[in-house]
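Researcher: Let's do a round of design. I'm pasting the structure tokens now; please hold your answer until I've finished.
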């Protein structure tokens, strides 16, 4: 069963657009931030970027969840930064049924959106490290984040359909 990972830097709209994509696919939605160990959240909350060592248990927890959703034949959309190809490889676990949708935006737009966000543990001071860590995906559908969440989700669903990857149940 297919899992779609809506990915990108912090502030690109994963947690807003992801549920809309899930609704359009008739799938469940999962928030990748909920898989972070408390130590990771604490570190990011004080403005310290995570290392690959910090990210490993988080990635492994999400990879296990993805494998579980697939084994239960449960279509799911996961919001997860998945900034490096190695991280995406861990999440996919070699499966062709794990698809990536990259929410792509400029540093300026993402910074503006993050500054407007309330109650999130990720400070705007970490934007630079997010963009520095990002490796452009080799096999992802890129969707620009200009526009409303509904417009972005509609573009993602159309791109998934055009790529022959899914048949969305309905529009967002």
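Researcher: That's everything. Go ahead.
Model: Designed sequence:
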């Amino acid at each position: 069963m297919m899992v779609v990972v809506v990915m990108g830097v912090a502030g690109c709209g994963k947690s807003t657009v992801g549920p809309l994509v899930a609704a359009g696919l008739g799938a469940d939605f999962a928030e990748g931030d909920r898989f972070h160990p408390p130590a990771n959240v604490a570190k990011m909350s004080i403005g310290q970027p995570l290392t690959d060592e910090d990210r490993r248990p988080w990635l492994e927890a999400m990879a296990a969840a993805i494998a579980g959703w697939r084994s239960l034949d449960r279509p799911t959309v996961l919001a997860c930064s998945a900034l490096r190809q190695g991280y995406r490889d861990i999440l996919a676990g070699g499966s062709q049924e794990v698809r990536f949708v990259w929410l792509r935006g400029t540093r300026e737009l993402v910074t503006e959106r993050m500054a407007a966000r309330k109650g999130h543990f990720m400070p705007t001071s970490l934007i630079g490290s997010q963009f520095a860590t990002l490796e452009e995906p080799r096999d992802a559908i890129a969707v620009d984040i200009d526009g409303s969440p509904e417009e972005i989700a509609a573009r993602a669903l159309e791109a998934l359909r055009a790529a022959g990857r899914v048949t969305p149940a309905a529009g967002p």
